[in-house]
Design a protein that fits this description.
two-stranded antiparallel ribbon
Length: 269
């Protein structure tokens, strides 16, 4: 009987130990769940950072950014390329819409003997006031100044504005490697409006000074109306640096009056 009681006591102790072991398992499961929750929170924070990064880089709506990241396994480069293609498609849809607003951009060469004017149109004044659009106009004007020209060099008496090929300018590349056409399409997709390079002109002088004036200037080199004036010495001799600065000051004043008076002719005859 004593032996039987001892065996029964051992069995009860074994059962009690197994019961304690089973009760401790949920705690281990809770510990695993805590780590899983932390990992999920870290992944969510990482995804939020990627969305913010791509949103700033592309300027696309957050919904489009998130959708492209999810469909490309959260690869930023693949998502950016998908957004770019989507933007180009969106820009193509707006290309037929009327664009009558916008800005003109003007850039002069470092020696003051050459300048270009470009006109980039948007649908509304709201976009024309946008910093992204304004930067585009300035970049296009700078690209126009570097565009090769095959016309004969002007003489002191034949300086005149020469139209630049819009097609050639659209094919020109900006310093970052993007073409003017792609840059316009990118801004159009981000602004949800038609953005169009309408025309461009170049004015150069061998010996004189090309002065510029921009009316209602919204930023350096940008405005609503632009005017270029060429003043050249009658003897055909190049201007000294000091004289060039004085002539340029007079030329800017004449350009400002030309914008205000809208003259149609240089001489009565």
């Amino acid at each position: 009987e004593q032996c039987s009681a001892a065996n029964m006591s051992q069995q009860m102790m074994g059962t009690f130990s197994r019961l304690l072991s089973s009760l401790s398992r949920p705690a281990a499961h809770h510990h695993w769940g805590h780590h899983a929750g932390r990992a999920f929170a870290a992944a969510a924070a990482s995804h939020t950072d990627l969305i913010k990064q791509l949103r700033q880089r592309s300027g696309s709506p957050i919904s489009d950014v998130k959708s492209c990241l999810e469909s490309n396994s959260w690869d930023v480069e693949l998502a950016y390329d998908a957004l770019r293609k989507k933007g180009l498609a969106a820009a193509a849809k707006t290309a037929s819409r009327h664009a009558a607003d916008g800005l003109v951009g003007c850039v002069a060469s470092s020696n003051g003997r050459e300048a270009v004017i470009v006109e980039v149109n948007s649908e509304t004044d709201f976009v024309a006031r946008n910093e992204l659009f304004q930067k585009l106009v300035g970049r296009v004007a700078a690209a126009a100044l570097t565009l090769p020209h095959h016309t004969s060099e002007p003489t002191p008496t034949t300086s005149k504005a020469t139209p630049l090929s819009v097609d050639k300018l659209m094919e020109a590349h900006l310093p970052e490697g993007q073409s003017v056409a792609d840059a316009c399409a990118e801004v159009a997709s981000r602004m949800r409006e038609n953005v169009k390079l309408r025309r461009a002109f170049r004015l150069a002088s061998n010996y004189g000074c090309v002065s510029t004036y921009l009316h209602q200037s919204s930023a350096p080199g940008l405005g609503r109306i632009a005017c270029l004036v060429v003043l050249e010495p009658v003897d055909g001799q190049p201007l000294s640096q000091e004289t060039h600065q004085q002539v340029d000051a007079v030329g800017r004043q004449l350009a400002m009056h030309a914008v205000g008076m809208k003259p149609q002719f240089l001489k009565k005859d």
